Backbone:
């Protein structure tokens, strides 16, 4: 049951969810990172915040059963279930044009930041400053010297994250267009993701 | 030479800095955490961002010689010198009323979030959503399970962080009012900090 939505490789999608609705994020090919944001539907100044989530949970990253929190320390999404190994990132910013330029790419490159703004615009919403994303399936290693290294995801085809809305909200997903760093696997090929809204 | 500014315990202060100006943050008593933000003076939608700083540096936390970056991946502050052991936090949100309420405090409690907004208002500036702070001198331990624990600072009386402005900016400091967790040392007593503007 429910509505199936394709999140095409390199693109974003904003979805309205009523409180208690569920959405399943299905990593069809296994190694696609999905940058994720959530906003209070009634007040886009209240947003899911990685720094508040870390502070509220006293952990670097939420795991199954944990909530994610807004900048007002209210739970906004419940990470209800996760069939993946549970490796997701809360540390890195969404990619943007400047990230690709700094990596040496010439010309226009799609990005999670652009996807965020475009997806919200499709719902007639606008947020000037992009909140810190929850990078589902992104595998960021922390070295003994506290260096950070992006490694290929450890998730597998069909791995599914189930989120429950804890308020009326807008959730935004971006199938990360990174094709230079191994964010989306060693083949550096962004792929489709499936969303299923219950 | 230069102007000496007292940052009183539990309070905040916003300071305008021209490009290339320096400010020294002197931890008079040794264990006072100083939440720090920076904004482009000409466009408060461009702010120092911990997630962009981590992404640009590929490390959890800047160390002496590193720049801190904005949400447009431009360097905004140079961490020019640091006589402390170099332990600063980029992970946790600024404290706020809700943080104290969740810790069991009844009534009104000052917070870094309130200090941020009040300090900016004194310069006729307003930022709706507080950016992620750079928590100077805050000692957050990461456990093997990726749990986070606030420990007393390892900085000592007189330890000084020197910052150089890399654009015309407004920098905001808050002498964190935390007196429940050991953020500001085991005696849980917020104390004064000295700022010296060059």
Residues:
């Amino acid at each position: 049951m429910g509505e199936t939505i394709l999140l095409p490789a390199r693109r974003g999608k904003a979805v309205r969810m009523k409180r208690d609705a569920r959405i399943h994020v299905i990593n069809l090919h296994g190694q696609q990172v999905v940058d994720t944001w959530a906003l209070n539907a009634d007040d886009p100044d209240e947003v899911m915040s990685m720094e508040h989530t870390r502070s509220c949970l006293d952990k670097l990253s939420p795991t199954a059963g944990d909530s994610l929190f807004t900048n007002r320390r209210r739970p906004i999404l419940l990470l209800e279930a996760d069939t993946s190994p549970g490796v997701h990132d809360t540390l890195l910013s969404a990619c943007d044009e400047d990230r690709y330029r700094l990596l040496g790419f010439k010309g226009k490159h799609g990005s999670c930041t652009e996807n965020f703004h475009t997806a919200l615009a499709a719902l007639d919403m606008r947020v000037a400053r992009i909140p810190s994303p929850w990078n589902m399936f992104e595998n960021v290693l922390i070295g003994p010297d506290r260096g950070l290294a992006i490694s290929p995801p450890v998730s597998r085809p069909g791995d599914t994250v189930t989120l429950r809305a804890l308020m009326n909200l807008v959730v935004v997903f971006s199938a990360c267009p990174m094709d230079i760093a191994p964010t989306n696997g060693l083949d550096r090929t962004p792929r489709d993701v499936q969303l299923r809204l219950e």
